[in-house]
Amino acid sequence: MTGVDLADFPGLADRLEAVRGGIADACRVAERDPADVTLIVVTKFHPAALVAALAGLGVRDVGENRHQEAQSKAEELAGLGLDWHFIGQLQTKKARQAARYASAIHSIDRERLVDALATAEVEKPIDAFVQVNLTDDPARGGAAPDEVERIAERVLQTPTLRLRGLMAVAPLPEEEDPASAFARLRGHSERVRTLAPEATAISAGMTHDYAEAIAAGATHLRIGSAITGKRPDPR
Ligand SMILES: *Cc1c(COP(=O)(O)O)cnc(C)c1O
Question: Which residue among 34, 41, 133, 149 is buried most deeply as judged by most CB within 10 Å?
Answer without folding.
Answer: 41
